[in-house]
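User: Predict the structure for this protein chain, please.
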Amino acid sequence: MRILRPAILALVIAGAFFYFTTWRSNSQLGQLHTSDWLNHTSLNQSASTRSALAPVPQIEITEAASNETLDSEEQNNILIYRKNIPSVVNVTSRAMKFDFFYGAVPQEGQGSGFVIDKEGHILTNYHVIEDAQQLEVTMHNRKKYRATVVGTDTVHDLAVIQIKAPDLVPAVLGDSRNLQVGQKVYAIGNPFGLAGTMTRGIVSSIRPVKEPNGATIEDAIQTDAAINPGNSGGPMMNGHGEVIGINTMILSNVGQNAGIGFAIPINTAKAVLADLTRYGRVKRPSLGIISYGIGPDLASQMGLAVDSGVLIQKVVPGGAAERAGLRGGNEQAYVGNMPIMLGGDLIVAVDGKQVNDPQDINALMDKHQAGDTISVTIYRGKREMTLKLILGEARDQNT
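Assistant: Here is the predicted structure, written as structure tokens:
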């Protein structure tokens, strides 16, 4: 017994030491590790460093306040989008082209347009539907409708197509007169086929722009709002959500937005809409003359009373100019190798606005319709005269 007592006492002391220093410590650390792993270091450390374990600070994140209010500008952007998106459509044109090797090859193009009345008339660009054998319109709700061409105006790159669909929401057409450089504009369309895309910018300039077909857009709206392939035919809107233009072309070396896009003024479209829907074409007004622009050098050589104007070469038989008593030339001369007729009336103003070349007259005609009465100021020799004239309908290349 005397020999066992010291042995038993030694075992008790050793067991107590092991319990308090090793087994109990590991148990507590294991509980901490499994219950709160984000706040404690790993237990895969040596026994000598476990006593130095310390909590790691929790990750703190900053969250936005819930229901944060939008500023007035954002609210207006959203309002304009919601107001107009039901009116904007995607126009898909399909045609069959013939390849030399493969025969008939299907072609497909996309553009934009917008509803202008409850009857389903849609305004778009002519180049969007040009040569199309089949037209399909996709609404903002993804419903698709077959479309037919109602009328086209190649000079202004405009077209009216029509669908049969219920509950249409027409866009509100604004006024493109008196636009100011710097005012906000918005464009909605389908750039690269991405339906329902809105971009924003400003009016960068108001300028005449020549289209690829050679026609000139008078008072074209230049903007830095992003316009890309697929935007053609879509609406450009002012800060009130009213359509002030039809997006038509971009100026870019890479075929995509470079911050210079152009829109046809909505007033140009409104002037021809009645003809397009009624006749399928534009009954373009005309003075009924063949003309030639005169500058200062030529005017001096010819001994004219003023230094610029539009010289009437010939009046079209039965046309507006002939009915009003205007006169064409009666003596042939040459400007370089080009023959011209001298002796005709020199037009210097239409409705009190100065004209220097035939393009000036064409721009003024865009503001009128066949049958309108205008005043024409001319020089006949040295005598100035103002005559009233009822516009006729343009034929061929007559002014």
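The first helix runs from residue 4 to 35.
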